[in-house]
Model the fold of this input.
Amino acid sequence: MILEFYKVIRMKIFIIDRDYTEAKGFKWYLESYLLNEIEVYILNSIDQLYQQYQQVHPDILIVEIELIKHPNDIAFFKLARKDGTEIYAITSEPLFQHALKAIQMQVTHFFVKPVDLNHLKYLINYLLIRRKDLVL
Done:
């Protein structure tokens, strides 16, 4: 019964990453190991994100922080966060400037590559449970 409820909620996840192969790996892992059904969109730029976001409002944004280049980008992520979108930032370089961007964007979690996929799965499943509790 509980698993049936999880499958009813279809989460939308955007992965914004320059490395298509890595994004495809995230997509495969999430589709294979999450409790619920998801729709994963792979985007390779912030411009693509802006275009897609007008049509689909994701539950989760997973973004490579190196793609965030302008203050308007940071403002966009803050607004998305206020709209209820969870934001996970990823970096391959654990630099202070990237951590500062993550703080300014009000990310839910900041990952340093290689990403601990079990922890990512836990965070997303926890979000699903939290949202389920809000619905019931």
Residues 31 and 108 are 21 Å apart (CA to CA). The longest strand covers residues 11-16.
